[in-house]
Amino acid sequence: ENKAQREALSASEADSRHAAQVVRAVLDALPAYIAMLDEQGVITSVNAQWPQFAEGLELAGGEFKVGANYVETCARVAAAGQAEAAEMGRGIRAVIQGEETGFSLIYPCHSATEKRWFRVNVSPLTTAASRGAVVMHTNVTERMEAEQRLVQLAHYDSLTELPNRLLFRDRLEHALTLARRNDWRLALIFIDLDRFKVVNDTLGHLAGDRLLQEV
User: Fold this and answer.
1) pTM for this entry
2) Contacts of 106 (CB under 8 A, 6+ apart)
3) 94-124 confidence digits (pLDDT tens)
4) CA dist., res. 82 & res. 78, Å (int)
5) CA 30 – CA 25 distance, rounded (Å)
6) Measured in whole angstroms, how far is the alpha carbon of residue 157 from the centre of its chain?
7) Averaged pLDDT for residues 155-161
8) CB neighbours (10 Å) of residue 33?
9) Which residues contact 31 (CB under 8 A, 6 or more apart)?
10) DSSP-derived secondary structure for 162-193
11) Which residues is 100 bridged to in the sheet?
C-alpha cells in the first residue's frame, strides 16, 4: 500500500511538473510581456520576453525585475511625472484586492527615436493560499498609428494638412453651443481667394495647389 501511495504521489508530482512546464512554454511563446505578482505587488515570475521590455520601462526611473514591488515602482514613476503609472498602480491594487475583476489601459512609451504605445491588461491570479495578479503588456503601436491616420484622413485636408469642412463644422457647433450657454458673442472670419480659377486655368493645377499651400 505504501509503495502504491508513493507511486501515485510520484505520478502526481510528475503531472504537476509537466503542467508547470506547459504553462511556462505558453507564456514564453506569447508575443507579450508578462509578469506575475504576489498579494503585495511583488514580481515573482516573468516570461522570456519580459527582461528586455523591463529595461525600457526602467528608463522612466523604476525597477521592474523579479523581486521588485510593481505597485511601489508605479508610485515612484508617477511621482516623476508619468501620470499613467499612477492609474496603472491603482488598477493593479484593485485587481489584487478583489475590488475589480480586471484592468486595462493604453499608455505611451516613447523613446528618443520612436513613438510606441502599449496596452496593459491586469487579471487576478488566485490560489487557495493567496491572491495576486498577472500583468501583461502588449505593443499596440501599429493600431494607434492606424487610428491616428484615420483621424487625420477624416478631419484634415490632404493637400494643406489644415482642418477640413467636417472638423470645421464640429468646432463651429461647439463654439456656438458655448456662446449660447455663456451668453458670449462670436465672430467668424471668412478668407477667400479671388480669381483662383484663373491660376488653375493659366498655370495649371500644380501651381494652384502650391498657391493654396502657401496661403
Assistant:
1) 0.66
2) 117, 118, 119, 140, 144
3) 999 999 999 999 998 877 778 889 999 999 9
4) 5
5) 9
6) 28
7) 90
8) 24
9) 49, 138
10) SB-HHHHHHHHHHHHHHHHHHT----------
11) none
